[in-house]
Design goal:
heterodimer; A: mainly alpha; Cytochrome Bc1 Complex, Chain C; 2 domains; two-stranded antiparallel sheet; B: mainly alpha; Cytochrome Bc1 Complex, Chain D, domain 2; two-stranded antiparallel ribbon; globular
Amino acid sequence: MTKPTWKNPVVKWIDHRLPIFTFIDHSAIQHPTPRNLNYFWNFGSLLGFILVVMIASGIILSMNYTANASLAFDSVERIMRDVNYGWLIRYVHMNGASMFFIVVYLHIFRGLYYGSYKQPRELLWIIGILIFLTMMATAFLGYVLPWGQMSFWGATVITNLFSVIPFFGDTIVTWLWSGFSVDNPTLNKFFSLHYLLPFIIFGLVFIHLWALHTHGSNNPTGIDVKGDKDEIPFHPYYTVKDAFGLGFFLVIFLGFVFFAPNFFGEPDNYIEANPLVTPPHIVPEWYFLPYYAILRAVPDNFIDVWGWLPVIIPAKTAGVICMFASILLLAALPWLDTSKVRSANYRPTYFWLYWIFLINTIILGFVGAKPAEGAWLLIGRLSTLYYFLHLLVLIPLVGRFEKTKPLPDSISSSVISVSTKDEEPANA
Amino acid sequence: MLRHKFIIFFAAATISGFFSNVVNSAGVAVKPGEEAWTTNGVFGSFDRKQLKRGWQVYNEVCAGCHSIRLIYYRNLAEMGFSPNEIKKIAGSVEVPAGPNEDGETHKDDEPIMRPGKAFDRVVSPYANKIAARVANGGALPPDLSLMTKARINGANYVHALLTGFKEAPSGFKLSDGMHYNPYYPGGQIAMAAPLSAEAVEYSDGTKATVEQMSKDVTAFLIWTAEPELEERKRLGIKVIFFLIIFTAMLFAVKRQIWSRLK
């Protein structure tokens, strides 16, 4: 990489004192990137874009929103009806949250398939999980703000989870609520935190990128870059590819905003919060459903089943522990996965485990939407069991016994043989 | 637009078909049938004549018990009422006038009233929720402003409910003061069948059958819930049309730039 020389005197003057242009040139223009990244590598920049959209639309919404239990619901409806293009901004923000999670799940499952979490990208992965957790907290807090029935009852259920913390549980819940139930002070607090957390995400994203640019992107072969032939500059190749991906994404995103804006929502949230009326089914937003299923999967007779456990853990506590563990365990994945080969393309056994794990997670999502009873509960329990079996047993074992396929000599040799085959018809 | 429809459908089916919470409320109710609302689909729009008829049904029948508190008289202009008509409609009701120049809000224990204006909310039938319950045997008639968004399959549900009243099947235990309606969760609802043939007289000559009135008032409620619907879909068509072309161009540019690599 060469150090750029700046012709524009103003740019030159600034860059000499604060090398911001050199920084941009290094990290977004010249940044050497593996030449074989497929479209699954589009989601990182897409997530950055969505974060900016969410912050921008959120700031505008907050100018018209009132964080008061008796005014919040109507203030959102005023945005929908009387603020110029308020409906557009609000629907963008609302559907943007769902899009954020769809894309982040694709991003995470990309990492799982291609082993992007492995040495030397462990910290990159862990920071990613921190971003994901902060996103979840932000989404939960934001869902409370319109003060509909699901806002209120979702907040009640989720905040109650913290009551299982030993000794301090009830104190913590009272502190979260700023009172003795979800009420006006809770709404105020959640609004404040909902405004704060996105900026923390923004900071974490910078650290995520810093770590990413230290060793560069992983790639579909999972092998390391071996020379200049393996890499191409980020601009124009990946800027244009990301731009195309962004256009494609916007068609889908705005398709929902304009033509099915309430597709991801719960009708109950168009009923104003009422502490005296519990909705027949309290369900979280779709992106929390797999965790909700894990939470509810733990049997009530947990102590009987595990009677020999020296520590007595009530079912609710165990459920909460399982739910948080299901995410936190992912942070240990770089060490749980014992295979030296990154990409599932060269790991015949892991390939199948990966797809089973993905399907299992989707099943958990289904189960989360159903009442916790009968067959659904049983499926939820088996799926929960498999989720942990995959992470704690299968992943460590398969790396030890799997016979991996031979890896290509280099990234360029792997692409060039493929790409000539692909492009022959176009040339003919 | 076919492509756009396809993308929506595809995205919808794959991503959320999986997760969309097939919520079934506690008492499993009969699924409402699909009606062809003018607002359906990508090109959906309001039928203003129908909205006016729907407003008439709301005003003459539903408004006896149900409020639409998110709607102001001025909003009626969006349905095609002229400023003069709105003045007349709003002026036909009385609203509390607030303190007069002497600071009084009441005279002889009666609140001082003034005629309604375009900027007033459509007046609610009851002063408060308790008064509403007292007048309705303990049941609270819900506000209808957002009804078609606040129920699963909202518009179809409202229409099915309004036209779905019938005799309870033998063996069905109907509680006191309740009415049988298979579309309502649990099968019994405090509201009696609100519509009967010729309950209103349409000025445009449309025959006021129960089916017709129900459709009209439901269309009206789609408008109260989503007054932006028409503007949203019209803008959406332009935006998506632009984006598809723009994205196709980006794809061509991408192909060209990447063809430099060989």
